[in-house]
Amino acid sequence: CNWMHRSSFYVACFLGLTLLLACVHSDNSMLSGPETETLFSKFMVDFGKSYYSKVEYHKRLQVFAKNLARIHRHNSDYPDDALWGVNEFTDLTEAEFRSSRLMQKRPSPLFEEASYLPVDVPSDLPDTWDWSEKGAVTGVKDQGSTGTCWSFSTTGNLEGQYFLAGNNLTSLSEEQFVDCDYNNCGVFGGWPYLAYQYAKKQGGVEAEGSYPYCCGTGDCYPCMADKNRTFCGPPPTYCNRTCLAKSSNFVPNLQVESWRPISKNETEIAAELISTGPLSVLLDAGGLQLYHSGVWNPSKLFCNDVDLDHAVLLVGYGTEKTLLSEKPYWLVKNSWGAKWGMNGYFKIMRGEGRCGINTCVSTGILAKA
After folding, report:
1. Ordered DSSP codes for 2-40
2. pLDDT, tens digit, for every residue of 129-144?
3. Which spans in 221-325 are helix H?
4. Among residues 228, 310, 355, 360, which one is catalytic?
5. Are 295 and 329 contacting, i.e. CB atoms less than 8 angstroms apart?
6. CB 181 within 8 A of CB 154
7. Is-catalytic flag, 74?
Protein backbone atom coordinates (compact mmCIF):
# COMPACT_ATOMS: atom_id res chain seq x y z
CA CYS A 1 0.00 0.00 0.00
CA ASN A 2 1.02 3.58 -0.53
CA TRP A 3 1.15 6.72 1.62
CA MET A 4 0.66 9.19 -1.24
CA HIS A 5 -0.30 7.94 -4.74
CA ARG A 6 -3.93 7.63 -5.95
CA SER A 7 -4.09 6.28 -9.53
CA SER A 8 -6.39 3.27 -9.90
CA PHE A 9 -5.38 -0.11 -11.28
CA TYR A 10 -6.78 -3.64 -11.55
CA VAL A 11 -4.08 -6.20 -10.81
CA ALA A 12 -3.72 -9.27 -13.05
CA CYS A 13 -1.30 -12.03 -14.05
CA PHE A 14 -0.72 -12.74 -17.69
CA LEU A 15 0.32 -16.41 -17.85
CA GLY A 16 0.58 -16.50 -21.64
CA LEU A 17 3.40 -13.97 -21.60
CA THR A 18 5.09 -15.84 -18.78
CA LEU A 19 5.11 -19.01 -20.86
CA LEU A 20 6.43 -17.10 -23.85
CA LEU A 21 9.26 -15.71 -21.76
CA ALA A 22 10.26 -19.24 -20.84
CA CYS A 23 10.96 -19.80 -24.55
CA VAL A 24 13.38 -16.86 -24.83
CA HIS A 25 16.93 -18.06 -25.44
CA SER A 26 19.09 -18.72 -22.39
CA ASP A 27 21.60 -16.06 -23.45
CA ASN A 28 19.25 -13.45 -21.96
CA SER A 29 18.65 -11.93 -25.39
CA MET A 30 15.64 -9.63 -25.50
CA LEU A 31 12.71 -9.92 -27.87
CA SER A 32 12.87 -7.80 -30.99
CA GLY A 33 11.16 -4.40 -31.06
CA PRO A 34 8.18 -5.54 -33.15
CA GLU A 35 7.72 -8.66 -31.00
CA THR A 36 7.78 -6.62 -27.82
CA GLU A 37 5.31 -4.10 -29.23
CA THR A 38 2.95 -6.91 -30.25
CA LEU A 39 3.07 -8.31 -26.73
CA PHE A 40 2.58 -4.82 -25.31
CA SER A 41 -0.51 -4.27 -27.46
CA LYS A 42 -2.00 -7.51 -26.17
CA PHE A 43 -1.03 -6.53 -22.61
CA MET A 44 -2.95 -3.26 -23.02
CA VAL A 45 -6.05 -5.08 -24.24
CA ASP A 46 -5.98 -7.77 -21.58
CA PHE A 47 -5.50 -5.32 -18.72
CA GLY A 48 -7.62 -2.45 -20.04
CA LYS A 49 -4.62 -0.12 -20.32
CA SER A 50 -4.67 3.17 -22.21
CA TYR A 51 -2.23 6.06 -22.32
CA TYR A 52 -3.02 9.73 -22.78
CA SER A 53 -0.35 10.47 -25.42
CA LYS A 54 2.08 8.84 -27.82
CA VAL A 55 4.92 9.98 -25.60
CA GLU A 56 3.40 8.18 -22.61
CA TYR A 57 2.71 5.11 -24.75
CA HIS A 58 6.35 4.83 -25.82
CA LYS A 59 7.53 5.47 -22.27
CA ARG A 60 5.38 2.60 -20.99
CA LEU A 61 6.49 0.38 -23.86
CA GLN A 62 10.13 0.89 -22.84
CA VAL A 63 9.35 0.11 -19.20
CA PHE A 64 7.43 -2.99 -20.28
CA ALA A 65 10.39 -4.20 -22.37
CA LYS A 66 12.80 -3.71 -19.44
CA ASN A 67 10.48 -5.63 -17.14
CA LEU A 68 10.25 -8.49 -19.63
CA ALA A 69 14.03 -8.71 -19.44
CA ARG A 70 13.90 -8.55 -15.63
CA ILE A 71 11.39 -11.41 -15.56
CA HIS A 72 13.49 -13.60 -17.83
CA ARG A 73 16.70 -12.78 -15.96
CA HIS A 74 15.16 -13.55 -12.58
CA ASN A 75 13.63 -16.85 -13.69
CA SER A 76 16.95 -17.87 -15.27
CA ASP A 77 19.29 -16.71 -12.50
CA TYR A 78 17.13 -17.73 -9.51
CA PRO A 79 15.50 -21.05 -10.45
CA ASP A 80 14.92 -21.91 -6.77
CA ASP A 81 13.03 -18.69 -6.07
CA ALA A 82 9.42 -17.87 -6.92
CA LEU A 83 8.47 -17.56 -10.56
CA TRP A 84 8.09 -14.04 -11.90
CA GLY A 85 5.61 -13.19 -14.64
CA VAL A 86 3.80 -10.38 -16.42
CA ASN A 87 1.01 -8.71 -14.47
CA GLU A 88 -0.73 -5.36 -14.11
CA PHE A 89 2.48 -3.77 -12.82
CA THR A 90 4.70 -4.65 -15.79
CA ASP A 91 4.41 -1.14 -17.28
CA LEU A 92 5.64 0.44 -14.04
CA THR A 93 9.21 1.07 -12.95
CA GLU A 94 10.22 -0.27 -9.56
CA ALA A 95 9.97 3.24 -8.12
CA GLU A 96 6.51 3.76 -9.59
CA PHE A 97 5.34 0.43 -8.24
CA ARG A 98 6.52 1.30 -4.76
CA SER A 99 4.84 4.69 -4.85
CA SER A 100 1.56 3.26 -6.13
CA ARG A 101 1.15 0.18 -3.92
CA LEU A 102 3.51 0.34 -0.94
CA MET A 103 3.84 2.54 2.09
CA GLN A 104 6.85 4.61 2.96
CA LYS A 105 9.21 2.19 4.74
CA ARG A 106 8.97 2.29 8.51
CA PRO A 107 10.48 0.06 11.20
CA SER A 108 8.15 -2.12 13.22
CA PRO A 109 6.78 -0.48 16.38
CA LEU A 110 8.25 -1.63 19.68
CA PHE A 111 5.79 -3.23 22.09
CA GLU A 112 6.23 -3.99 25.77
CA GLU A 113 7.19 -7.59 26.40
CA ALA A 114 4.25 -8.09 28.75
CA SER A 115 1.80 -7.13 25.99
CA TYR A 116 2.58 -10.13 23.78
CA LEU A 117 -0.05 -12.84 23.55
CA PRO A 118 1.07 -15.96 25.47
CA VAL A 119 1.66 -18.84 23.06
CA ASP A 120 1.42 -22.54 23.83
CA VAL A 121 3.16 -24.57 21.11
CA PRO A 122 1.67 -28.08 20.94
CA SER A 123 3.95 -31.06 20.42
CA ASP A 124 1.83 -32.18 17.45
CA LEU A 125 1.77 -28.95 15.45
CA PRO A 126 0.21 -29.82 12.05
CA ASP A 127 2.50 -29.91 9.00
CA THR A 128 0.09 -27.71 7.04
CA TRP A 129 -2.70 -25.27 7.78
CA ASP A 130 -4.94 -23.04 5.67
CA TRP A 131 -7.75 -20.93 7.12
CA SER A 132 -8.95 -20.06 3.61
CA GLU A 133 -10.02 -23.70 3.25
CA LYS A 134 -11.77 -23.67 6.62
CA GLY A 135 -14.23 -20.85 5.94
CA ALA A 136 -12.50 -18.12 7.97
CA VAL A 137 -11.29 -15.93 5.09
CA THR A 138 -13.35 -13.71 2.77
CA GLY A 139 -12.61 -13.37 -0.94
CA VAL A 140 -9.56 -11.48 -2.14
CA LYS A 141 -10.11 -7.71 -2.33
CA ASP A 142 -8.32 -4.91 -4.17
CA GLN A 143 -7.10 -1.80 -2.37
CA GLY A 144 -6.43 0.06 -5.63
CA SER A 145 -3.47 2.43 -5.70
CA THR A 146 -4.11 4.00 -2.32
CA GLY A 147 -2.27 3.45 0.94
CA THR A 148 -5.01 1.42 2.58
CA CYS A 149 -3.43 -2.03 2.91
CA TRP A 150 -3.46 -1.61 6.70
CA SER A 151 -7.29 -1.50 6.69
CA PHE A 152 -7.51 -4.72 4.64
CA SER A 153 -5.10 -6.49 6.97
CA THR A 154 -7.19 -5.31 9.93
CA THR A 155 -10.56 -6.36 8.52
CA GLY A 156 -9.13 -9.71 7.42
CA ASN A 157 -8.09 -10.46 10.97
CA LEU A 158 -11.40 -9.31 12.46
CA GLU A 159 -13.40 -11.23 9.84
CA GLY A 160 -11.61 -14.41 10.94
CA GLN A 161 -12.14 -13.63 14.63
CA TYR A 162 -15.84 -13.04 14.06
CA PHE A 163 -16.25 -16.28 12.13
CA LEU A 164 -14.37 -18.33 14.72
CA ALA A 165 -16.64 -16.88 17.42
CA GLY A 166 -19.50 -18.80 15.80
CA ASN A 167 -20.86 -16.20 13.39
CA ASN A 168 -21.38 -16.24 9.64
CA LEU A 169 -18.34 -15.12 7.65
CA THR A 170 -18.93 -11.40 7.04
CA SER A 171 -16.94 -9.02 4.86
CA LEU A 172 -16.13 -5.92 6.91
CA SER A 173 -15.77 -2.32 5.78
CA GLU A 174 -12.26 -1.13 4.97
CA GLU A 175 -13.72 2.23 4.00
CA GLN A 176 -14.94 2.83 7.55
CA PHE A 177 -11.38 2.53 8.83
CA VAL A 178 -10.03 4.75 6.04
CA ASP A 179 -12.65 7.46 6.59
CA CYS A 180 -13.00 7.33 10.35
CA ASP A 181 -9.87 5.99 12.04
CA TYR A 182 -8.28 9.07 13.62
CA ASN A 183 -5.30 6.96 14.78
CA ASN A 184 -4.08 6.29 11.22
CA CYS A 185 -3.51 8.21 8.00
CA GLY A 186 -6.30 6.99 5.74
CA VAL A 187 -5.12 6.67 2.12
CA PHE A 188 -1.61 7.62 3.25
CA GLY A 189 -1.05 4.41 5.26
CA GLY A 190 -1.31 3.14 8.81
CA TRP A 191 -0.85 0.35 11.33
CA PRO A 192 -3.38 -2.44 12.07
CA TYR A 193 -2.71 -2.27 15.83
CA LEU A 194 -3.90 1.36 15.83
CA ALA A 195 -6.94 0.34 13.81
CA TYR A 196 -7.92 -2.18 16.51
CA GLN A 197 -7.77 0.65 19.04
CA TYR A 198 -10.04 2.78 16.88
CA ALA A 199 -12.56 -0.07 16.49
CA LYS A 200 -12.59 -0.62 20.25
CA LYS A 201 -13.31 3.03 21.01
CA GLN A 202 -15.79 3.42 18.14
CA GLY A 203 -17.81 0.48 19.42
CA GLY A 204 -18.10 -1.55 16.25
CA VAL A 205 -17.47 -2.04 12.54
CA GLU A 206 -19.90 -1.92 9.64
CA ALA A 207 -20.16 -4.62 7.00
CA GLU A 208 -18.79 -4.05 3.52
CA GLY A 209 -22.34 -4.01 2.18
CA SER A 210 -23.46 -1.05 4.27
CA TYR A 211 -20.21 0.94 3.99
CA PRO A 212 -18.59 -0.09 0.66
CA TYR A 213 -15.02 0.62 -0.39
CA CYS A 214 -14.65 3.61 -2.72
CA CYS A 215 -11.33 5.41 -2.16
CA GLY A 216 -9.32 2.79 -4.07
CA THR A 217 -11.60 3.13 -7.10
CA GLY A 218 -11.37 6.92 -7.27
CA ASP A 219 -15.06 7.27 -6.44
CA CYS A 220 -14.35 9.12 -3.18
CA TYR A 221 -11.51 11.09 -1.63
CA PRO A 222 -11.48 10.82 2.17
CA CYS A 223 -10.43 13.78 4.27
CA MET A 224 -7.88 13.48 7.07
CA ALA A 225 -8.59 14.19 10.72
CA ASP A 226 -6.85 17.43 11.70
CA LYS A 227 -5.02 15.92 14.64
CA ASN A 228 -3.30 13.41 12.34
CA ARG A 229 -1.29 16.00 10.45
CA THR A 230 1.76 15.80 12.71
CA PHE A 231 1.95 12.03 12.33
CA CYS A 232 0.80 11.73 8.72
CA GLY A 233 2.06 14.88 7.05
CA PRO A 234 0.01 17.33 4.97
CA PRO A 235 -3.61 16.34 4.33
CA PRO A 236 -4.97 15.67 0.83
CA THR A 237 -5.12 18.72 -1.41
CA TYR A 238 -8.69 17.72 -2.25
CA CYS A 239 -11.20 15.64 -0.33
CA ASN A 240 -14.95 15.09 -0.47
CA ARG A 241 -15.57 12.40 2.11
CA THR A 242 -15.83 12.42 5.91
CA CYS A 243 -16.73 9.60 8.27
CA LEU A 244 -20.16 8.08 7.59
CA ALA A 245 -20.14 5.26 10.15
CA LYS A 246 -23.41 4.65 12.00
CA SER A 247 -23.68 2.58 15.14
CA SER A 248 -27.05 1.31 13.94
CA ASN A 249 -25.22 -0.40 11.06
CA PHE A 250 -22.53 -2.07 13.14
CA VAL A 251 -22.22 -5.83 12.66
CA PRO A 252 -24.04 -7.54 15.57
CA ASN A 253 -21.87 -9.10 18.28
CA LEU A 254 -18.64 -7.70 16.84
CA GLN A 255 -17.01 -5.63 19.56
CA VAL A 256 -13.22 -5.27 19.67
CA GLU A 257 -12.22 -5.66 23.30
CA SER A 258 -8.44 -5.37 22.87
CA TRP A 259 -5.53 -6.37 20.68
CA ARG A 260 -2.22 -8.15 21.21
CA PRO A 261 1.11 -8.39 19.38
CA ILE A 262 2.42 -11.90 18.74
CA SER A 263 5.87 -13.44 19.13
CA LYS A 264 8.51 -13.06 16.41
CA ASN A 265 9.33 -16.75 16.78
CA GLU A 266 7.87 -18.36 13.66
CA THR A 267 7.04 -21.66 15.33
CA GLU A 268 5.03 -19.72 17.90
CA ILE A 269 3.41 -17.69 15.13
CA ALA A 270 2.29 -20.94 13.47
CA ALA A 271 0.83 -22.17 16.76
CA GLU A 272 -0.96 -18.86 17.32
CA LEU A 273 -2.25 -18.85 13.75
CA ILE A 274 -3.97 -22.18 14.41
CA SER A 275 -5.40 -21.27 17.79
CA THR A 276 -6.36 -17.65 17.05
CA GLY A 277 -7.17 -17.47 13.33
CA PRO A 278 -5.79 -15.39 10.43
CA LEU A 279 -3.23 -12.86 11.64
CA SER A 280 -2.30 -9.36 10.55
CA VAL A 281 1.34 -9.16 9.42
CA LEU A 282 3.57 -6.57 7.78
CA LEU A 283 6.63 -6.97 5.55
CA ASP A 284 8.90 -5.32 3.03
CA ALA A 285 7.02 -6.13 -0.19
CA GLY A 286 9.03 -4.31 -2.87
CA GLY A 287 10.17 -7.58 -4.46
CA LEU A 288 6.57 -8.66 -5.10
CA GLN A 289 6.04 -6.39 -8.10
CA LEU A 290 6.36 -9.18 -10.69
CA TYR A 291 5.59 -12.20 -8.47
CA HIS A 292 3.61 -14.94 -10.19
CA SER A 293 3.78 -18.16 -8.15
CA GLY A 294 5.91 -20.36 -5.92
CA VAL A 295 7.72 -19.76 -2.63
CA TRP A 296 9.25 -16.29 -2.53
CA ASN A 297 12.70 -16.57 -0.97
CA PRO A 298 14.39 -13.26 -1.79
CA SER A 299 17.85 -12.15 -0.81
CA LYS A 300 18.41 -8.82 0.91
CA LEU A 301 18.81 -7.29 -2.54
CA PHE A 302 15.02 -7.51 -2.83
CA CYS A 303 13.90 -6.92 0.75
CA ASN A 304 15.11 -6.48 4.31
CA ASP A 305 13.73 -7.58 7.65
CA VAL A 306 13.66 -4.17 9.35
CA ASP A 307 11.78 -1.65 7.22
CA LEU A 308 8.15 -2.53 6.52
CA ASP A 309 5.93 -1.11 3.75
CA HIS A 310 2.92 -3.40 3.31
CA ALA A 311 0.26 -4.98 5.55
CA VAL A 312 -1.28 -8.34 4.59
CA LEU A 313 -3.08 -11.32 6.14
CA LEU A 314 -1.35 -14.53 7.23
CA VAL A 315 -3.76 -17.43 6.64
CA GLY A 316 -1.70 -20.62 6.56
CA TYR A 317 1.58 -22.44 6.16
CA GLY A 318 3.03 -25.60 4.68
CA THR A 319 6.05 -27.06 2.90
CA GLU A 320 6.63 -27.14 -0.85
CA LYS A 321 8.55 -30.31 -1.69
CA THR A 322 10.69 -30.94 -4.76
CA LEU A 323 13.02 -33.76 -5.70
CA LEU A 324 16.01 -31.91 -4.26
CA SER A 325 14.65 -29.70 -1.49
CA GLU A 326 11.87 -28.71 0.85
CA LYS A 327 10.68 -25.13 1.21
CA PRO A 328 8.65 -24.28 4.31
CA TYR A 329 6.37 -21.36 3.52
CA TRP A 330 3.75 -18.99 4.83
CA LEU A 331 0.53 -18.60 2.82
CA VAL A 332 -0.47 -14.93 2.69
CA LYS A 333 -3.58 -13.17 1.41
CA ASN A 334 -2.77 -9.93 -0.40
CA SER A 335 -5.04 -6.99 -1.27
CA TRP A 336 -4.10 -6.46 -4.94
CA GLY A 337 -7.03 -8.32 -6.47
CA ALA A 338 -7.70 -11.97 -7.25
CA LYS A 339 -5.81 -11.92 -10.57
CA TRP A 340 -2.49 -11.04 -8.97
CA GLY A 341 -0.08 -13.80 -7.88
CA MET A 342 -1.69 -17.11 -6.93
CA ASN A 343 -5.33 -16.02 -7.15
CA GLY A 344 -4.53 -13.06 -4.91
CA TYR A 345 -2.23 -14.99 -2.55
CA PHE A 346 1.51 -15.49 -2.30
CA LYS A 347 3.89 -17.83 -0.51
CA ILE A 348 6.99 -16.64 1.31
CA MET A 349 9.79 -18.64 2.95
CA ARG A 350 8.95 -19.59 6.54
CA GLY A 351 11.37 -19.83 9.45
CA GLU A 352 13.96 -17.25 8.40
CA GLY A 353 12.21 -13.94 9.02
CA ARG A 354 12.13 -13.17 5.31
CA CYS A 355 11.32 -9.53 4.57
CA GLY A 356 10.33 -8.95 8.20
CA ILE A 357 7.23 -11.13 7.89
CA ASN A 358 7.57 -12.07 11.58
CA THR A 359 8.30 -8.64 13.06
CA CYS A 360 4.84 -7.06 13.35
CA VAL A 361 2.26 -9.81 13.84
CA SER A 362 -0.94 -8.93 15.67
CA THR A 363 -4.55 -9.82 16.28
CA GLY A 364 -7.63 -8.08 17.51
CA ILE A 365 -9.53 -9.71 20.37
CA LEU A 366 -13.32 -9.64 20.31
CA ALA A 367 -15.52 -9.37 23.37
CA LYS A 368 -17.49 -12.54 24.00
CA ALA A 369 -21.12 -12.20 23.05
Report:
1. -SS-------BEEHHHHHHHHTS-TT-PPPPHHHHHHHH
2. 999 999 999 999 999 9
3. 229-232, 266-276
4. 310
5. yes
6. no
7. no
